[in-house]
Write a structure and sequence with these properties.
InterPro entries: AB_hydrolase_fold, LYPA1-2/EST-like, PLipase/COase/thioEstase. This is Esterase. It comes from Paenibacillus contaminans. It is built from six helices and eleven strands. By secondary structure, the chain is α/β, with parallel strands linked by helices. It has one domain: 3-Layer(aba) Sandwich (Rossmann fold), CATH 3.40.50.1820.
């Protein structure tokens, strides 16, 4: 199949033949691109396959996965199509590359975080875990989608205390929603606006390494 998205892929150095590797699919924010996420995931490149997915719709000099009617209000048809396309892309990449299907992670910021959380709810234990930075779950996903259990899915959610795009209460409400769905939830607030601090990056890198069972002794 021809995937719906352009992407770049980074394989661990010194890969072992016949070994399957954990994978991180990155999803960027609205108006950004796949290279923006690579820098955030770079500390994990020695142990994970990293696949950076570019949104298929243009927005200025960047890209997006779906368009909005207004802030926090996706165009439903485009959002639904993005979810379907991303599920298909994850299957495609799992078959094409030496991916451990039991250790598939999504890592998204803003619009990418919204999609990561939505995909966790639609794919359930097909995903090992997600990292969602400064996002939310659309109301129609909670009430109208066919949702899968995420009780065995690991979820890392973070939000900026001074987020001027999605106020901090949205992050708190999102965490409360997932708290009722899984016992494997980590929720952190950081003293930032709508962005990712070095502390936030350090925390989700350690979380991903730990959740995937990777030896974090760098010495």
């Amino acid at each position: 199949m021809k995937p719906a998205y352009l992407y770049d892929i980074h394989m661990p150095a010194n890969m072992e033949p016949d070994r399957k590797y954990p994978v991180i699919f990155t999803l960027h924010g609205k108006g950004s691109n796949e290279k923006n996420m690579l820098g955030l995931a770079a500390p994990l490149a020695s142990e994970f396959i990293i696949i950076n997915i570019r949104g298929n719709l243009t927005l200025g000099n960047g890209y997006q996965y779906y368009e909005l009617k207004s802030l926090g209000n996706p165009i439903r048809e485009l959002f639904d199509q993005a979810v379907q396309n991303l599920e298909a892309f994850i299957r495609y990449a799992t078959e094409k590359y030496p991916v451990d299907a039991n250790k598939r992670y999504l890592f998204g910021f803003s619009q990418g975080a919204i999609l990561s959380m939505t995909l966790a709810l639609t794919m359930g234990d097909q995903l090992k875990g997600i990292v969602a930075l400064n996002g939310y779950v659309p109301a129609f996903v909670k009430t109208e989608y066919s949702l899968q259990s995420v009780k065995n899915t690991s979820v890392f959610i973070s939000h900026g205390e001074f987020d001027s795009v999605f106020p901090v209460r949205i992050g708190q409400e999102t965490a409360a929603y997932f708290q009722d769905q899984t016992s494997h939830l980590t929720f952190n607030l950081y003293p930032t606006d709508h962005g990712v601090s070095e502390e936030n990056q350090r925390d989700f890198v350690r979380w991903l390494e730990s959740d995937a069972g990777i030896n974090t002794n760098k010495e």
